[in-house]
């Protein structure tokens, strides 16, 4: 793994996303993007949800070595319930500097905060704590503005969809956000030591979110690459990032990512704890784990994956599985439980962990360490035994007003997906569900972003609040930059398909604007409204590179001969010019005279029209 | 468009598909592929459905200039109900040699049959005709053997799934195939003039099939490319091909494809008819269309897309749509209806068309010319008005024992997909449904193989018999070779996900074999069992190129530190060595003594194990 001697290695992608302009809305200056359409089109600009942070703002000054501005700094301090403490001393083992192949390292982040925040003794700084006391925080107001995107145009839209019992309001008020957080149905993950983050909500009654995983491994990648991947992933729409780094330099890698991340960041603390004991699961202790939580809490991690549901009695339930335990965190705890033949210390010490979480407002992402790793193991006894324990732990966390979401599978055939959602809602009191896919078949390694995108869209429709992306490299290797983009865009479209099916009031705005652009041959508008304008234009140009082809009423699928959408225009003109309604047509069928008349009328109304565009579908 | 002077331009991909061997099963020598797994694994070879024809058989001699051997020749002639006639003379207009930009052309296929087959006067040679008279044809026997793939291992599998009323048998007999064809619930498209085709069935109670579209357009591609694309598409799993060529040389292009296609080929005859009248829809006549049907019937086209449901009174129903009419065939007929203000000649002459179909055993693919072209237009009045007309036409075709399938949308949000399936089953008497996607959102051009793969998997689960693929270039350009492969593999995995969810008895065989290979670090087996072994291995090698990494119990996701599946092995060994069942574990929790004993037992049973493999999922 290469060191990072020079700043130049830390190059990230900046600048406006093609065809869109960064805007900041309302008193809190909520970041969004606005896509302006062809002046002649008479179309209003389309506002889209934006996760890309300052990186896509041409006016922002980006300095990776300094980190992002602290958007939430004043909000946090104004509440008067935090105190500054000296950051825990970084130790060699925090970066895995022990044992074999532990030499080398990366340049520490140059702008580390020496003083960090913590709740005053006895205080609770979680958003849930405030919400339950009727306090509407700036974070909640920010979320309300962000989620209301496009709802101004609601009047144009008739709501339809099937939300399977979700309660998506026509308009999101700060009070609605507060209520959802108070009852645990949504979370706003934002550690007080991560003031760089732009608040967002994860909950069944908000837009479906997606997470992208990045991170070093002992065999590949480096910090520069991971920071670049983080910026790249949020550029294309990742709502949160998980740093799954293993191997060396975990602490320093995370510092670079935290200080430059405008989205919530999650981790799996057990990975780093394991590094601290040289990779021997049996040697893990509560003390080492607890120390790791504090270390990461002070760095600003927004949510922790904790596999506290992997209980000793459930471990043997996995013995008959085809793929046993596929979660790394789950397998580490299973090994610990077997080695000591003791109940998991994560389960036993759960309330003490919660005490730590509430002092920084870290949200739980209760890990499904026993999730199925294959179609064969889906929805089995081990999986659901753990899920019900996660439900029990959810209620215990809520007793201390700590935010919780629940992780879900994995590998599940389509007919078994809904059962996962139904059981989760019932067992976990509607705490947000956060699923990995699920993959709907095991036979397509190399295409698992798609096998899982299918399951993700479906479970998102059923009620999952956040979808964890899967890249084409799943099961095969570590994703590179291109894989990250493909994974993010795939999950973005799956999440949007879910919003449409749930009947999210404004989801259709973008689909309809793009469809109108397509129908009217506004190629540039079609590219700009898409999730990936660069790829859309590139594909178009592979067939018709000429600049003219982007404006001509002529398309690459059918050439200058066939017409479909233009004929529709003709149908409209014709229907408009003759006043007979549908019944008129029906009657006319039997009236030769009427036919002749109408035929003549047609011939007078632009019979000869330029034929061009066609949507090349299968016929 | 380039001519094809030299044979060398007609290069197609041949040779065994990586990791598999071509086999021919039973008296009819039904082609399948067999994937042999690592000798040490104790795993039986896995047989997979194979659409690639002789091209993937190293023992076959391939000569594109001569065409494929006539597998069904003797079966057809043995029935004694056909006669040889002289093929209709090819005219310049058959290749669009008139009007502007009509010069040039391609080399005619050198091995054209001068004599073609037709039913004897008054005879009906459709598989449905035979089926309804209790005759089991070799085609039906071939299909039974082909569909039974893997069912020999049924005993190992417990069936589950939700088939939404389909009736998938444990074992497919020739008699079952006959019954399904007789009642119109399945079709076996195989024109008597396409004896090169390997029989396959399209029906809700058989494996879900996929179609790939190819074809020239006036603006791009050439014959050599299209033949190569056809061979490439079936190599990766396309069950049928549609030749959607437009522009020049339609006749010759089709001849090259027909003579070299081992799968059924479909067309949209109205495209060629339109070329014959210089692209002026209004100038189309029944006589020109009829002549085109004969021309294509004699070449061996196996199914015709006929847009006979686009009736005059339905046309104005599309006027208020966001994207009007997106089907090219549909828009051509709509224009014709408006121009003459007459009912569609396809609807009026439907029974005469059926007369032609039964003389060659061509199946109807009743086109959905009014399908929605956007989320906004899904499930509207125009779409369903046409669907009910297609149901009426289905019954009229069945009166003459002609096989029928029904085309479906298109663009449909997830919550509106099932209504399409339910209405189709009801309106069309369970005739096979053949859908394009549907796309579940409009905002991801460049990724529409995925937006539609989601809808395809779902509607396949609900009962669609064949899924028409969509490539990444949909709406943007013409698919190249790589796009064709991505489209085919995406739809193959969607169809398989549907088979799993429907509870197809043997669908899990391949998933489980691959999952066991993954669990046991048999990398080669994992690659070979996948839908695309080349891509799976390539992705693996991008992270760990070393040859050793393909055999080592070590993976690229977690490196030599983390372990998940190996820990499961440990769990198994442990569970096996101690005889206490789950209850034992539960009790033990409260028994310190028991714990110590079990802990000691654990330490005696291989505590130190090699840590390597991990399925890098999100934690």
From TrEMBL, chains A, B:
- ThiC-associated domain span: 20-83
**HAMAP family per the record?**
ThiC
Q: Name the EC number(s).
A: 4.1.99.17
Question: Mind naming one GO cellular-component term on file for this protein?
Answer: cytosol
Q: Which reaction does it catalyse?
A: 5-amino-1-(5-phospho-beta-D-ribosyl)imidazole + S-adenosyl-L-methionine = 4-amino-2-methyl-5-(phosphooxymethyl)pyrimidine + CO + 5'-deoxyadenosine + formate + L-methionine + 3 H(+)
What does the record give as cofactor?
A: [4Fe-4S] cluster
Which taxonomic lineage does the organism of this UniProt entry have?
Bacteria, Pseudomonadati, Pseudomonadota, Alphaproteobacteria, Sphingomonadales
User: Which residues does substrate bind?
Assistant: 213, 242, 271, 307, 327-329, 368-371, 407, 434
Binding positions ([4Fe-4S] cluster) = 555, 558, 563
**Keywords attached to this entry:** 4Fe-4S, Iron, Iron-sulfur, Lyase, Metal-binding, S-adenosyl-L-methionine, Thiamine biosynthesis, Zinc
Q: Know the name of this protein?
A: Phosphomethylpyrimidine synthase
Which GO terms label this protein's molecular function in UniProt? 4 iron, 4 sulfur cluster binding; phosphomethylpyrimidine synthase activity; zinc ion binding
Keyword set includes Iron-sulfur: yes
Q: How is the cofactor bound?
A: Binds 1 [4Fe-4S] cluster per subunit. The cluster is coordinated with 3 cysteines and an exchangeable S-adenosyl-L-methionine.
Q: Which family does it belong to?
A: Belongs to the ThiC family.
What does the record list as GO biological process? Answer: thiamine biosynthetic process; thiamine diphosphate biosynthetic process
Annotated segments matching region Disordered: 86-109
| Enzyme class, broadest EC rank | lyase
Q: How does it assemble?
A: Homodimer.
Q: Where are the transmembrane segments?
A: none
The job of this chain, per UniProt, is described as: Catalyzes the synthesis of the hydroxymethylpyrimidine phosphate (HMP-P) moiety of thiamine from aminoimidazole ribotide (AIR) in a radical S-adenosyl-L-methionine (SAM)-dependent reaction.
The annotated pathway is:
Cofactor biosynthesis; thiamine diphosphate biosynthesis
């Amino acid at each position: 793994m290469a060191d990072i001697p020079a700043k130049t290695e830390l190059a990230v992608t900046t600048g406006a996303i093609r065809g869109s302009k960064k805007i900041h809305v309302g008193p809190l200056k909520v970041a969004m993007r606005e896509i302006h359409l062809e002046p002649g089109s008479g179309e209003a600009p389309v506002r889209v949800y934006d996760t890309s942070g300052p990186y896509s703002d041409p006016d922002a000054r980006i300095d990776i070595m300094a980190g992002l501005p602290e958007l939430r700094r004043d909000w946090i301090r104004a509440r008067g319930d935090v105190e500054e403490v000296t950051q825990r001393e970084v130790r060699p083992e925090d970066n895995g500097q022990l044992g074999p192949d532990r030499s080398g390292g990366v340049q520490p982040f140059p702008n580390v905060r020496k003083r960090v925040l913590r709740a005053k003794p006895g205080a609770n700084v979680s958003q849930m704590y405030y919400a339950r006391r009727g306090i509407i925080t700036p974070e909640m107001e920010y979320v309300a503005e962000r989620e209301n995107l496009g709802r101004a145009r609601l009047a144009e839209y008739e709501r339809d969809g099937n939300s399977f019992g979700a309660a998506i309001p026509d308009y999101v008020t700060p009070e609605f956000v507060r209520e959802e957080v108070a009852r645990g149905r949504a979370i706003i993950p934002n550690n007080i030591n991560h003031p760089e983050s732009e608040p967002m909500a994860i909950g069944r009654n908000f837009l479906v979110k997606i997470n992208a995983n990045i991170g070093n491994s002992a065999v590949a990648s480096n910090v520069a690459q991971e920071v670049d991947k983080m910026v790249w992933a949020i550029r294309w729409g990742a709502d949160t990032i998980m740093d799954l780094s293993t191997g060396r330099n975990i602490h320093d890698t995370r510092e670079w990512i935290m200080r430059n991340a405008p989205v919530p960041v999650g981790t799996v603390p057990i990975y780093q704890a394991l590094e601290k004991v040289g990779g021997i699961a049996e040697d893990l202790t509560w003390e080492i784990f607890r120390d790791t939580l504090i270390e990461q809490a002070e760095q600003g991690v927004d949510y922790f994956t904790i596999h506290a549901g992997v209980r000793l009695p459930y471990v043997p339930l996995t013995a008959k599985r085809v793929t046993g335990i596929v979660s790394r965190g789950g397998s580490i705890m299973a090994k610990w439980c077997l080695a000591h033949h003791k109940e998991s210390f994560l389960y036993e010490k759960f309330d003490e962990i919660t005490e730590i979480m509430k002092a920084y407002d870290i949200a739980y992402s209760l890990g499904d360490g026993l999730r199925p790793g294959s179609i064969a193991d889906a929805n089995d006894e081990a999986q659901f035994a753990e899920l019900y324990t996660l439900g029990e732990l959810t209620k215990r966390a809520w007793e201390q007003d700590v935010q919780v979401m629940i992780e879900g599978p994995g590998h599940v055939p389509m007919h078994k997906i809904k059962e996962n959602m139904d059981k989760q809602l019932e067992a976990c009191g509607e705490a947000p569900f956060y699923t990995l896919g699920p993959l709907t078949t095991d036979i397509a390694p190399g295409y698992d972003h798609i096998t899982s995108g299918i399951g993700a869209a479906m479970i998102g429709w059923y009620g999952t609040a956040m979808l964890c992306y899967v890249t084409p490299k799943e099961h095969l290797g570590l994703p590179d930059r291109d894989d990250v983009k493909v994974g993010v865009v795939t999950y973005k479209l799956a999440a949007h398909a879910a919003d449409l099916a749930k009947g999210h009031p404004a989801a259709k705005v973008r689909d309809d604007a793009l469809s109108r652009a397509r129908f009217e041959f506004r190629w540039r508008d079609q590219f700009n409204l898409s999730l990936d304008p660069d790829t859309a234009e590139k594909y178009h140009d592979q067939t018709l590179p000429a600049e003219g082809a982007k404006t001509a009423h002529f398309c690459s699928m059918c050439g200058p001969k066939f017409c479909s959408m233009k004929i529709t225009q003709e149908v409209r003109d014709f229907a408009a010019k003759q006043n007979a309604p549908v019944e008129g047509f029906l009657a006319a069928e039997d009236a030769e005279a009427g036919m002749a008349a109408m035929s003549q009328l047609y011939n007078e109304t632009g019979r000869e029209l330029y034929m061009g565009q066609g949507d090349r579908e299968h016929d």
